[in-house]
Amino acid sequence: MKELERLAAEKARAAVKYDKIGMREEAAKRYREAIALLEKLIELTDDPVMRRIYEEKQAQYRRRIEALSEKVSVGGRSEEQAETDESFIIQNPPPVKWDDVIGLEQAKKAILESIIYPMKRPDLFPLGWPRGILLFGPPGCGKTMLAAAVANEIDAVFMHVDASLIMSKWLGESERNIAKIFNTARKYESTGKPVIIFIDEVDSLAAVRLNEVGGEARARNQLIKEMDGLLDKGRKSLIYILAATNKPWLLDEPFIRRFQKRVYIGLPNYEARLRLFQYYAGKLNLDNVDFAELARITEGYSAADIYSICVEVQTKIVSEFFEQGGDEPRKITMEDFLEVIRSRRPSVDPKSIEKMLEWYERFGAL
Fold it and tell me: Does the pTM exceed 0.85?
């Protein structure tokens, strides 16, 4: 099994090498040999997870063989059709409106100036506008919600990319995945449609590690190359790159410089916590609950923590109703909230906040 897997990987590497230098027939031949070896691995393995991985690789190589056989004429010469990937497009982004994003005023201002205002009046921006925005901060503070709200606000194609999912151990596959994402974005931009590429957990793709292998460096370089093509000075592109990370200190400095805006998404302050409780708990059947006190005692809690508190209180009351019977669940009291909060500590480590603020002092750019 190990030997077959080694041979399959070797054939795939050879295929990628020939593919890159334009030797189509040789590349297709090596892809076919890799497919045949993977077929043997599928027959021999009892592991359903590995079988699915081998089948996915076969499908990818078959698609590549098909692409190699398809040529289009451009200016009297033949070129490959650009590969695209629609799987990252969220057809119906979460129905988040701009006003649903509670707090995050600095981040909202940066995005208004970089994306929303230029979309409304591009004529007012003769020098162009920022199209790379890095959102960093602790988990659960609204980075993804902010990206979805922007996409809805400008009616954009929303591409949600989990960076960890596009990485591959197969030579050349990660770079190709990145290229396909950007080719897809360009396809939609060519129709006049704005595109938001939201790269979640971007540190898993653009981090510098002591023991990284060549594939990680190539994937990072491919991402930088694609971004450089979009972020050229004077080019008024409709493709915007929003990247999110909980570990900005891991990012490669050349990669950091590709983002004109680097915005800290921090924990909600008192006013934001108050509004979060009003927004979430206000939908529940309450009995004299003091939102101001709840906001006061939840300092250090993230927006996701506050949402979870409200959900747990709701679950507590519903569970009690089903266990004890009755016509309707009782109203939720202040004590119910206090009981849940006593059993739930904040999910964010204060030391990580200190580290992010130190990074912000060095690299922040609003």
Answer: no
Q: Assign 91 a pLDDT band (cuts: 50, 70, 90).
A: low
Mean of all residue pLDDT scores within the chain: 83
Please name the CATH architecture into which domain 86-267+353-363 falls.
3-Layer(aba) Sandwich (3.40)
Contact present, 162 and 178 (Cβ < 8 Å):
no
Pick the CATH number of 270-347 from 1.10.8.60, 1.10.940.10, 1.10.3720.10, 3.30.450.20: 1.10.8.60
The reported pLDDT for the residue numbered 77 is 36
Instruction: List, for residues 258-270, the tens digit of each pLDDT value.
Output: 898 999 999 999 9
What fold does the segment set 2-73 form as a domain? Methane Monooxygenase Hydroxylase; Chain G, domain 1 (1.20.58)
